[in-house]
Amino acid sequence: MAANEYARRTVLKETVFSQALGKERSLRVFLPPGYNELVSHRVVYCQDGEECFNFGRIATHATRLILDEGFEPFLVVGVDVDMPNRTDEYAPDGSRFGAYSRFFLEELIPFVESRYPVRTGAGDRVLVGDSLGGTVSLHLSLQVPHSIQRVVALSGAFLDSSLSAIESAGAEELSWLRLYQLIGTEETAVATSRGTFDFLEANRRMRTLLEAKGADVRYVEKAGKHIWGFWQDELPEALRWALGE
Fold first, then answer.
1. Transmembrane region positions (predicted)?
2. What is the crossing angle of helices 160-167 and 132-143, to 10°?
3. Cα 47 from Cα 25, distance rounded (Å)
4. Is residue 152 a contact partner of residue 219, using CB atoms and an 8 Å limit?
């Protein structure tokens, strides 16, 4: 494939006013090669949207999957983060988590589905997030298992509140969930605004709990740090798995 085919892409910028959040939120929307308004497409939604596009290079990865590997064209929607409020919005015990959940599920997704020809089946929406972005993606899916069943968590910040939520689920209750879980072996002392945590051990515990509840988990543990340089390289495989049948 000629190099200019990979470089030629369409990324639109959108703005959504959220009643739940009381402010505007910026989006970027990747339209894939072969985009056709008469055909419905699957959608990958990314937390930390600007970083996922710029540092994760998700538009490049998506283009290569479509052009080189024959994946059916899909859209990517990056939801830009409100950095001062990131922890409050993304952490399940955060003060703005409920508002962010309402924005994402009741405002953002309907906005995208009203403006673009996308599929609305439970397996047609994929949520991607890094660190706390992975946490909020999993918790959003737990709120609407009939609507969102595929999640990619890149070094998810699965701390006590998340582990407790999964632990409280009934046996086989999460058999609907398809989760790609990546964690680096060097993530044993990750500094956050709430303290320093062993994300490696937390992810190992999360995997055990999820599998005990019947979730379909692709767990990948390899050398890596809590940085986009690690996640960028692993994102294509994560998308392959999440978008597979």
1. none
2. 30
3. 12
4. no
Distance of alpha carbon 114 from alpha carbon 132, whole angstroms? 28
Give the single-character DSSP code of 38: T
For residue 123, the one-letter residue type is: G
Phi, psi of 18 (to 5 degrees): -105, 120
Q: Domain segments of the chain: what residues?
A: 3-243
Q: From CA 181, how far away is CA 210, in angstroms rounded? A: 11
Q: What is the 3-state secondary structure (H, E, C) of 123-150?
A: CCEEEEEECHHHHHHHHHHHHCCCCCCE
Nearest to 207 by CA among 198, 199, 189, 219: 219
CB atoms within 10 A of CB 166: 22
Q: What is the pLDDT of residues 113-164, one digit of tens each?
A: 999 999 999 899 999 999 999 999 999 999 999 999 999 999 999 999 999 9
User: Terminus-to-terminus CA distance in the chain, angstroms?
Assistant: 26
At position 221, the amino acid (one-letter code) is: E
Find, among 103, 61, 78, 113, the residue nearest to 243 by Cα.
61
Nearest Cα neighbor of 177 from 193, 188, 185, 166 is: 166
Instruction: Give the Å distances, CA to CA, from 96 to 49, 64, 77, 214.
Output: 18, 36, 21, 30
pTM exceeds cut of 0.85: yes
State the average pLDDT for the chain. 95
How far apart CA 77 and CA 32 sit, in angstroms, is 11
What number is the average pLDDT over the span 2-12? Answer: 69
Q: Which residues pair with 197 in a beta bridge?
A: 190
Pairing status of strand 216-222 against strand 178-184: parallel
